[in-house]
Amino acid sequence: MSARFDLEQQIMECWNVTTDLKRVTEYLLDAPLEPGREDKIANMLLGMEALYEVKFDRCFRTFEKLLKEQHDQQTGV
């Protein structure tokens, strides 16, 4: 049952991507037009991409673990 709880928590963490994108959008619209601003935004987005790649990968591995456990229980393995 803990794998199911872990999966639920990890899915909820992944929903944060929308909040994080909103923050970057707010920065894009509200920040002063300073030199290097485009690089700063690009770095934020690249960091978010890497972070969410890890989060979604972890979530999918938990999902696979949960399916395997459920299959093993059903087949008596």
How would you describe what is shown here?
It is a single chain. With 77 residues, the protein is mostly helical. The protein has one domain (2-75). Helices cover 87% and strands 0% of the residues. It is rod-shaped and about 65 Å long. The model has no long low-confidence stretch (mean pLDDT 88).
Search tags:
3 helices; 77 residues; single chain; mainly alpha
The total count of helices amounts to 3
User: What is the number of E strands?
Assistant: 0
Distance between the termini: 17 Å
Radius of gyration: 18 Å
User: pLDDT under 50 segments (min length 5)?
Assistant: none
Structural class: mainly alpha
What is the residue-averaged pLDDT?
A: 88
Task: Kindly estimate the percentage of residues that lie in beta strands according to DSSP.
Answer: under 5%
Would you list the SSEs in sequence order as H and E?
Answer: HHH
State the helical fraction. Answer: over 70%
Described by strand count, sense and barrel closure, the largest sheet is: none
Q: Label the overall shape.
A: rod-shaped
Total individual domains: 1
